[in-house]
């Protein structure tokens, strides 16, 4: 039996979705808890990894088990035994052809950037102390939409395509925050944080708008801004 | 020279304002940072202690130093060297007659109780899964206003008066939260969390409204509800 699991997590105290350098990963905690409930060894496959300190509002995983429990019994048991920074939002029995990574068609990431530092939000948003020109940032972010080779923004991983289609790349300014939303058919490692770092550099006037073309058309990594810090990043949704 | 210091802190990773059982206290961190900047040993006196996990939006302290720095140089140095979960909001030179504890005339505590569990807010608000009758809670909280012997709600500490004047005790309900606000000329240890625990028990129908009189008029501790958890509590303001 294969289950599809939708989870939220606070990435603050984890090394990322996968364990690294002996630090605890979300995956390890999920697998240990699932195995304990099912009384068999369970492996988890996610839609993709998230990095150290990055959060999820709707990460999707799948796992196989012989345990004949109802969806609601799984949900109750998981939320009882998981630590309080990981929450299962939904669990549903799926066909064995479903694969959390390979069946994913679209993902949404949100990046939350505050205008002022707030000690109570410091692990859940990034902040920028410089004033930003939103017009320049709007022009920059619009250039990301469409099909491009995003190699300039991401880290190349063998066997993973770097040409991706960005369905939505938008920026919303509120009184207190800048909210970036990205929806694409896939993302490279560090790609969202690298795009946000570059766009905010353009907003500060530190880099010209023209670098967007250099990066998207010529994959010129030397033009890319500093990778934005992880605490502002949320994997919001995965579509199948 | 005596300075008055107004600070905010995230109490999550501290044993409380004062160090306890070898755990780190806010006071210890403040004193070490101040001493390092002033190059002399500095002691800090606060308006009062806060417990493990309790936060502050406007705790007030004082300290004495020989160091002839301007207020703005102190502010800059402190916010540079303090960890990112303690923020100095204001620092000002005061008369030596000022005392952070003895000169305080009024304090405001706020308690934030959410209707749903949110993993990203779990250290910054309490939550209650039961529906609450706000009418009953409004009637209960109103009984706290005025001058009463609050011994039933607090922990008795020698030489500290238990008769206190509550200037404001109010409850506000939003779509997502219950917000309790208490302003008094002083608070006993655990008093706010004990009042909140009792009022929510009344809201759940677990205890009758009449216990408020038993506790306030007869100091009957057996009628008091469970102490509400610390993560929802904020010391908001101290008046002098």
TrEMBL record, chains A, B:
* Gene3D superfamilies the UniProt entry points to: Pseudouridine synthase I, catalytic domain, C-terminal subdomain, Pseudouridine synthase I, catalytic domain, N-terminal subdomain
- Enzymatic reactions: uridine(38/39/40) in tRNA = pseudouridine(38/39/40) in tRNA
Provide this UniProt record's keywords sorted from A to Z: Isomerase, tRNA processing
Q: Which GO terms describe its molecular function?
A: tRNA pseudouridine(38-40) synthase activity
Q: Which residues bind substrate?
A: 109
Indicate the residues that form the catalytic site. 51 (nucleophile)
Q: What class of enzyme is it?
A: isomerase
Q: Where is the Pseudouridine synthase I TruA alpha/beta domain?
A: 7-102, 140-240
- Its EC number is 5.4.99.12
| PANTHER family linked to this entry | PSEUDOURIDYLATE SYNTHASE, TRNA PSEUDOURIDINE SYNTHASE-LIKE 1
Please give the function described in this protein's UniProt entry. Answer: Formation of pseudouridine at positions 38, 39 and 40 in the anticodon stem and loop of transfer RNAs.
Q: How does it assemble?
A: Homodimer.
Q: Which family does it belong to?
A: Belongs to the tRNA pseudouridine synthase TruA family.
Its protein name is tRNA pseudouridine synthase A
Organism of derivation: Paracholeplasma manati
